[in-house]
């Protein structure tokens, strides 16, 4: 696989997906899966989605003879973990109409918010 290079200068790419959003995968081997966004890397235009695009990592314990404390906290064996998905393959699921939707931008209460294209409700949490 190799090192993913930076595509954008830091702070210039405005991603339509944010951490904590529920998204649906619309392309790739996890097509149709839904999950919560765990992490977003805007420079590489990728997001990690819980339970999607799982890879199997074969991992051995960290020096069982050298450092017993490290071996106790690091799990060994075959570990499944999610790998990043390109953000163009993700569609945000609207919390109010519970349908995958494109993202519009607008203002509500003097603040910029993301809006659902289908129902017009805000996608951002107001906590």
Which properties best describe this structure?
10 strands, 127 residues, SH3 type barrels, 6-stranded antiparallel sheet, mainly beta, two-stranded antiparallel ribbon, single chain, 2 domains
Overall description:
- The chain has 127 residues and is mainly beta.
- It has two domains: 1-93, SH3 type barrels; 97-127, no CATH class.
- Helices cover 5% and strands 38% of the residues.
- The protein is built from one helix and ten strands.
- The N and C termini lie far apart (39 Å).
CATH architectural category of the largest domain:
Roll
Spell out the helices and strands N to C. EEEEHEEEEEE
Count the strands? 10
Poorly predicted residue ranges: none
What is the fold named in CATH at topology level of the largest domain? SH3 type barrels
**Adjacency order of strands in the biggest sheet:** 6-3-2-1-7-8
Gap between N and C termini: 39 Å
Count of DSSP H/I helices: 1
Main sheet specs: 6 strands, antiparallel
Q: In CATH, what is the class of the largest domain?
A: Mainly Beta
What portion of the residues fall into strands of 2 or more residues?
Answer: 35-45%
Helical fraction equals under 10%
Total domains: 2
């Amino acid at each position: 696989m190799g090192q993913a290079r930076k595509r954008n200068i830091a702070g210039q790419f405005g991603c339509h997906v944010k951490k904590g959003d529920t998204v649906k995968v619309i392309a790739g081997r996890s097509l149709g899966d839904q999950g919560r966004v765990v992490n977003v890397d805007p420079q590489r235009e990728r997001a990690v989605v819980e339970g999607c695009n799982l890879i199997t990592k074969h991992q051995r314990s960290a020096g069982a003879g050298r450092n017993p404390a490290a071996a106790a906290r690091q799990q060994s064996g075959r570990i499944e973990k999610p790998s990043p998905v390109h953000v163009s393959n993700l569609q945000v699921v609207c919390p109010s109409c519970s349908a995958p939707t494109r993202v519009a931008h607008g203002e509500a209460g003097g603040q910029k918010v993301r809006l659902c294209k289908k129902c017009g409700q805000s996608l951002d949490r107001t906590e």
